[in-house]
Amino acid sequence: MMFRRHVIAVGMASLGTVLLPAGLVSADERQDAASALIDRMIADLKDFLATDTGDVEARAAEIDRVLGTYFDMETITRFSAGQYWRVADTAQRTEYSGLFRDVLCGTIVRNFDQLDGLDYTAGASSAKGDKFVMVSGTFTDTKGVRPPVKVNWRVLTPEGSPPRVFDIEIENLSLLVTQKQENIAVIRKNRGQFTALIDAMRARLDTPVHTN
Known about the structure:
The chain is of the alpha+beta class. Helix content is 48%, strand content 18%. The chain has a single domain (4-203), classed as Tgt2/MlaC (Nuclear Transport Factor 2, Chain: A). It has helices spanning 7-11, 27-51, 56-70, 73-80, 90-110, 175-189, 194-205; strands at residues 118-128, 132-141, 149-156, 164-170, 173-174. Strands 1-2-3-4-5 form a 5-stranded antiparallel β-sheet.
């Protein structure tokens, strides 16, 4: 659960701000804005890694800031619950949103040491309809231990608003779609009860956070 299979790529997102001004609607301009966002995130994370001391609290604070600033967490959270988001009441949505973010942050922190030695090479970008841009890249292990991993960042590019990462594909596998499928399976297994997903998130959050 919670992107556990390929959390490395999620952790590679970090700081910076790239706004998409009103009137910026051409495909080329949207692609440039999305690519610039990813480039800045990668560069800023490298800066953090250069001064990282292994402190779990500092890492958690960094990841939480990344999620809040560069990912469209509201849209991601809704999507991750599928059609069951509509049947959840306000209190359930609020609790799930907080748990979802906390668990995702904790999962990344637990795998943070896997970022050591990774290098990112930017690739091409392409518009996907009038709302998304796909930005490609490759993570390479400079130590030669792990094989290169291709990643696609699906970036929302709404006119007049800053681009935000919506999904990450690792070797053409959508992490968000995978998470949605897992979440829906939990709810259906429990007769459509949204509270079952909340309980699963609570249990996941109880897993101690530690470095590798």
